[in-house]
């Protein structure tokens, strides 16, 4: 049985634990065991150690990766920030001998080492590459036939492709998430703002107005070009930003139509028949109507 | 926005600041900054330049090359970078503008130019092992999970390990907050 270390990060653990539930339900159903990776910490995210110190960033990341390495397993995450911070730190450690030494010097103070064997994988790639679309389709209790999805892979799923564990054939025309969504029966077309930044993270905390503008232009494109019934993303930060910003835009009269937002692992969990209250129970832009529609259309 | 006086800057660059800023930035991880030819590939796709921030990647690199330093400290642009890395993906000279942005953050921190949100996240990382930390566990309980995730939040020994790591970084020199 294939086993992964479930890497939670902060947003999923505390703000959107329904995503954690989805992962804990979906992967075992495909015969993949999840290890709790006890004692894991923040990846570390961009505003913390990466902004302070290269060695410090890589050492915190390496500690997390080492927790997997000690058990001979890779990590798996549903958060793009965790994915990119861990992947980039690993890439740096493995391509810079001096850094590798310094990081392991720091780790030696807590009796750990990281050799670069364990890596972090993204849930979307594990679903797509290891499990495969056919097996996913076999497990569906409910389908999204006739529905239209606007996909949001998110920046850190795509770039820098050199450091990420797995890469799209063309990172500027990503297809993995579109294919995963179409496996559920929906249409997930290309749209002109598909790869645009959602405005989350540091951009939002520095300038909420500018961040909202980015989200607004994305919603316009989604509304006009996709006529989407739902938005599906592979990033927990994008999910929160696209969910919350719709309400902010609505308040100032700049949103035509609310569109429910899901993490891919959540919509998959719903289609596999898991309890929507548990796997997709937390949101601001309501999701209950579309969930009801999905469950009715069996 | 100030007009850049190139003659003045050239003189100053020769004397004191010029080498210093770019050298520091290189030391902080942006080793390839001098390879930039100002083609603008990075700024054409940067969320910061698109949304109207002042010192987006290409301009920041030019500013650093010209020897600016204090001029950056009044502006939050580097702290708005989402680390999306579109820039490093498209850079034809392997400059890695993302590293320049983050090296600038590492320089700004020396002057205590760090937004409260980032400082809070750092402190929270040290305190709890999580940059984003929510005391209230209603959300976890509502979806049927243990109140504490299997992280440093529920593992004292692991949290202590993480703190030892953090005490062996620049955090200890910078003194942004007490590392108890």
Share of residues in strands of chain A: 5-15%
List the total number of helices of chain A.
14
The gyration radius over C-alpha positions of chain A equals 19 Å
Number of structurally distinct domains of chain B: 2
Strand order of the largest sheet of chain A: 2-1-3-4
Number of helices of chain B: 13
What's the overall geometry of chain A? Answer: globular
Give helix % range of chain A. Answer: 40-55%
- Whole-Å distance between the termini of chain B? 42 Å
Kindly report how far apart the N and C termini of chain A lie: 31 Å
CATH class of the largest domain in chain B: Mainly Alpha
Helix vs. strand class of chain B: mainly alpha
CATH T-level fold name of the largest domain in chain A = Rossmann fold
Description of the molecule:
- The complex is a heterodimer of chains A (298) and B (180).
- With 298 residues, chain A is an alpha/beta fold.
- Helix content of chain A is 49%, strand content 8%.
- Chain A is built from 14 helices and seven strands.
- Chain A has helices at residues 11-15, 17-29, 54-71, 80-95, 97-108, 123-131, 133-138, 176-182, 202-206, 208-226, 236-251, 264-271, 276-279, 288-296; strands at residues 3-6, 33-35, 74-77, 120-122, 149-152, 230-233, 261-263.
- Chain A has a four-stranded parallel sheet, sandwiched between helices. In chain A, strands 5-6-7 form a three-stranded parallel sheet, sandwiched between helices.
- In chain A, strand 6 (230-233), helix 11 (236-251) and strand 7 form a beta-alpha-beta unit.
- The radius of gyration of chain A is 19 Å and the shape is globular.
- Chain A starts with a strand and ends with a helix.
- The mean pLDDT of chain A is 97.
- With 180 residues, chain B is mainly α.
- Helices cover 56% and strands 0% of the residues of chain B.
- Chain B is elongated.
- The relative contact order of chain B is 0.12.
- At the A-B interface, helix 1, helix 2, helix 3, helix 9 and helix 10 of A face helix 4, helix 8, helix 9, helix 10 and helix 11 of B.
